[in-house]
Amino acid sequence: MKKKILITFAALTGLMLLSACGAGDKQVTAGGSTALQPLVEQASIDFMKQNPDDIIMVQGGGSGVGLAQVAAGSFQIGSSDIFAEEKTGIDASKITDHKVAVVGFAPIVNENLKVSNLTDQQLTDIFTGKITNWKEVGGQDEKITVIGRTAGSGTRVNFDKYGLNGATEINGPTLDASGSVVQLVGQTPGAISYVSFSYINKPNVKPLKVNNVTPNDDNVKINKWKIWSYEHMYTNNSKENKVEEKFINYVTNDSKTLKKLGYISVSDMKVDRDAHGNIKKLN
């Protein structure tokens, strides 16, 4: 009797292990960029409806987290607003880049602010602390509250690089999630921050023009609006599987959802930009 029980237990354990392995091959964790998160969340829902055997788990945390975790093998997909080459401590040769979309970033302010446009120099001076009151740029007599993003944020890297000409932001309150930024700016008179286009039309906030250029998709496509980046999905070279590939292809080609949620298809771009910021016109 004991022998039969041991054999049955061993067989059951083996089946459980095989089942676990199968589930692992079908389960993908995609985490990182909060700028890309709305697209990944919606795409994961639609994708799993069409592929009920596959499981896509979505997390945020910022681009730095996405890159670090996919390089370590903890995430199967690392979402990032920046190239891996731009992140210190990441071996870009061990992960593969998949450009799934383009996203614009824009400064946002509390909706009650009587300012709609800044020059690029005024924008830089505000975020570096040289301008501290909105009356200095044509607004009301109100203190400016700068709300930044945490150091691991790809949104911050791109905004500082292309919106502030590489200047360093002043020390102040920082947040790591775009949704939290919108909420705080909307609740704080005189506040300014920056988010991706998918968040700029939320309640209680409004986007600003820069040099009289409107932050919209058409201006991003030709690089007239210069504060934009590719949205990347990175995979680990030694751990790629077919579910990752299938999901990434789904996200890239879901043009309807891309447009609905405020992203731009890579194929619609009229320019290309590399990790060093060099622009090349496309035919």
Along the chain, the helix and strand elements come as: HEHEHEEEHEEHEHEEEHEHHEE
CATH architecture title of the largest domain: 3-Layer(aba) Sandwich
Number of domains: 2
**What does the overall shape look like?**
elongated
The amount of helix comes to 25-40%
CATH topology assignment of the largest domain: D-Maltodextrin-Binding Protein, domain 2
CATH class of the largest domain: Alpha Beta
Low-pLDDT runs: 1-23
The amount of beta strand, in percent, is 15-25%
Describe the protein in words.
- This protein is 35% helix and 24% strand.
- It is an alpha/beta fold and 283 residues long.
- The protein folds into 2 domains: 2-103 and 228-281, 3-Layer(aba) Sandwich (D-Maltodextrin-Binding Protein, domain 2), CATH 3.40.190; 104-221, D-Maltodextrin-Binding Protein, domain 2 (3-Layer(aba) Sandwich), CATH 3.40.190.10.
- Residues 1-23 have low confidence and may be disordered.
Provide a quick synopsis of the model.
The chain is α/β, with parallel strands linked by helices. The chain has 2 domains: 2-103 and 228-281, D-Maltodextrin-Binding Protein, domain 2; 104-221, D-Maltodextrin-Binding Protein, domain 2.
